[in-house]
Amino acid sequence: MKWSEISIHTTHEAVEAISNILHEAGAGGVVIEDPFDLTKERDTQFGEIYELNPDDYPEEGVVIKAYLPVNSFLGETVEAIKEAVNNLMLYNIDVGRNKVTISEVNEEEWATAWKKYYNPVKISERFTIVPTWETYERVSTDELIIELDPGMAFGTGTHPTTVMCIQALEKCVQPGNTVIDVGTGSGILSIAAAMLGAKSVRALDLDPVAVDSAKLNVKLNKVQHVVTVAQNNLLDHIDKPANVIVANILAEIILRFVDDAYHLLERNGYFITSGIIQAKKQEVKDGLVNAGFTIEETLTMEDWVAFIARKS
Ligand SMILES: C[S@@+](CC[C@H](N)C(=O)[O-])C[C@H]1O[C@@H](n2cnc3c(N)ncnc32)[C@H](O)[C@@H]1O
Fold it and tell me: Where does S-adenosyl-L-methionine bind (predicted)?
């Protein structure tokens, strides 16, 4: 298996939390390079003093390194790590420089390197995701094919959190529905909703890279007459009601807008939430129920959880 090294330059204060995030993201081994180690008295069990190479250590702060398997959702894993580290600021943890670098495959190569691990994949009853650079023959007449060039945005379609959202959309979206996709990334969920017959879909993301990528993929799949893509923070300033709201974002972020989602939904509307790790399952469930939702279904895949909640 091929590994990619992720390195995060941060503070002593954030070491434990970031190490946990890396472990949760599936990192194989975490290495901490702390300049304090250079000045510590050290000797081996045989009494020899051994030396560390100062070039391996940062002048200030700490560098945490971890190794991630190179697979079709390496991009998503790195994005999710960055997002989780940024979120530490919400808990008043000083993350310092918070400089994230990826090596082994460098950043430019990385944009294309993962392509060879990314093939057409059937991810639900009806949907198959096909990378733009692959040719694919439709297997059955009712198969829905999403062509995708995720670039550097999250959403190759193969990540468990995305797969569960698409499966949930298949159950919830009725022809003629209006849909809002919060944190659209590559636009994949909005495209899926349009292909399921939604009459209008709003695809929102805070990250301009995601907005550009979603616009490109929406055109590629010829659903631009249904899907509008815009830069937006969660549901801020959105006032048109919807039948379905879908959000594949981290638990902490979902909890910030459950009330907004409840108010924007039509009666009997669905709120599909994903991106939730097992440890946060109960907290999100409580948040949804407290806002007034009924949990219709809980989906799980690997260590991830998704909810289909309904406004009655
Ligand atoms: C895990 S990705 C999901 C991408 C895609 N929807 C999928 O399911 O594959 C989460 C996305 O949420 C976006 N995001 C994070 N915080 C946000 C916010 N406050 N408002 C809007 N989008 C946000 C990120 O930029 C990222 O593209």
Answer: 162, 183, 205, 248
